[in-house]
Amino acid sequence: MVGFVELRDAKFDGWREFAAAWNKATTRLHDLEISFRTGVNDVVEQAGWKGMSAQTADKDLERVVRQIALSAMQARSIGSAADQAAAEMPVIQTALLTALREAEAAGIKVSDSGGSYVLNVAAPPGAEGGGAVSGDPAGTQALLDEYKRRLDAIIRQACEVDDKLAGVPAVLNPSDVAATALNSWENAEEDARRVAALRGVNGLPKDMDPVRSAAWWRGLTEEQRSLYLSSYPHEIGSLDGIPATDRDKANRRALDARLADLSGRPTSESEFREIKNLQAIQSALTKNGTCAADDSGRLLLKFGNKFLDGQVVMSIGNPDLARNTAILVPGTNTDVAGGLEGQMKRLDKIQDASDRLTPQTGDVASVFWLDYDAPEASFGGIDKPWESKVSSVVGWDRSAEGAPRLDSFVGGLRAQSTDHHISVVAHSYGSSLLGDAGRQGNGIAVDDMIVAGSPGTHTDSADDLHIDPRHFWAEVAGDDGIPGLGAASHAGWQAEHGKTLPHDKEFGGNRLVASPGDHSSYWNMNGDQPGSSLENQARVIMGLYDDPNPARRPELEHGRLPTAPKS
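^ that's the sequence the OP posted. Answer follows.
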C-alpha cells in the first residue's frame, strides 16, 4: 500500500540499479547453466562413464542444471518486475508533484496528515485575492473537491502498480528451485508470462504472415521485444519474419528451457527421442564449451518436436546481413539425433566453398532447413527386396506438407531484406519438396534453385516452377541411382520423351557438371579444394553467372547461363 507522503518523498534513483542487478544476475545464471551443461554434463557423458554410480551422478548433475535454470527464470521475473516499477512509479510521482504545484498556485494548501493529506484554503504566494479565496464559497469547495479527486486517483494508481508488482516475488516459490518438481518449470514459465502481462505483453498476434510479423516486431519497443523473448521464446523463435539474431536468442532460451524441463524426471519414449534430438541441436550449437553466437557463428532459427525425427533450422552466418544466402534442404532418412552432425558438415563445406569465391568476408550465410518430416526408406537390396520399406518416400504427402513452411521461411528472409540473393540447394527428396513450393501459387521467392540427385520436382518443366529456367540448376553424379529409382513417383512426363527428370535437357533448366560419385558425393572435396559439384553449387550461390573470368562461372553440361546475376 502506498500513501501520500510515501509517494511524494520516495527516491527512485536506485530502483533502476536494483533492476539492473537482478537482470545481471539472470544473465550470469543463464551463462552458468550453459557452461555447466556443456562443460560438465556433456563432458561427463562423453567420457563414457557407465554403471550405477554414473547414473546417480547423471541425475544429480541434471538436477543441478535444472535448479540453475529455474533460478534464472525466477531472477528474470523479478528483474522484469523491478524494471517495470522503475519505469512506472517515477511517472506517477511526477504527476503527484505536478498536481501539488498546481494546487498551490490555485490557492489550495496540501498538508501531511498521518501519512495522508488534508486540503485547506490558502492564497497563492504574492496574490491578493482571486483563486480559492475569491469570495466564492461554492467555487472554492468545487476546487477542493476536484483536487481531492485528482490526488486520490494518483495515489490509487500508485497503489495498483505497487500491488501488481509486489505480487511478482510473492508468487515465486523458492521450493520450486529446491525440489525441481514436475510442475516447477510450468510455474516458472507462468510467472514469466504473468510479469510480461503486467507490462502489456499478452501473447502473440494471430495469423501473421512473414511480412506482417516483421512489421509487428519492428513496431515494438526494445522493452517489449525483451519481454517477448523472455516470456514467449519458442513462439518468437519459430516466427518467420523475426530477425535471425532475435530468433536465435529466443530459441536458445527455449531449447535450454525444454531440456531442463525434460531432465531429471521419467520420460515417455517420444520424450526420450525428443531429448536426443535436442541434445544433438545443442551439441551443434556448442563450440569450445560455449553456446555464444555472433554474426559469423551458428544461429538457431527454429526447432521443435512436431516430428519424431525432430525439426531444426540452423544457419552459419547471419542470413539477414549476408549478401548471399544458401538454404540446404535434405532428403530421405534425415533426422536430427543421428543426422544433424553430418548435415552441418555439408553446410560447412557449402559455406567455405562459397565464401572463398569473393574477397569479402561475411557475404554469405548457409542455412540447414529441416522443417519437414523427411521420409524414411530402407532397401533390402537385390538379395532381400521384400525387406525394403519405401512407402513414405514414394508419396507426395511429406513434400506437400513441408513446402508451405519452406515458402514461409524464405518469405521471412525477404521480409528482412529484399535485395539479398537467396538460393536453395535441395538434395534427393528435398528437391521434390522444393518443386512443390515452386509450383504452388506465385512460387517461392528464391533467386536460384539447385537440385542434386533429384528424383523429380513433380513437374515436367522448369517453366512450371515460377522461375526463369536459366536460374534452375541440376546436378546428377554418374553413379547416383536414386534419380532413376524415384522417377516413377516424382519425375514429370513429356509425351515425346517419357519420364523427365530435372537434369534432362528436355526439362529446360541448366545441368551443372558434377563430380564422379554416388548419391552422397555432391559435397565431396578434392584434397583441400571443392569437388566439381560443390564448386558449381558455390558459383551459383554467389551469383557468378557472368563473372569476367569465364573459369569462375558455373560449368554446364547443357543449358544457358543467365546474362547477369539475379537480385
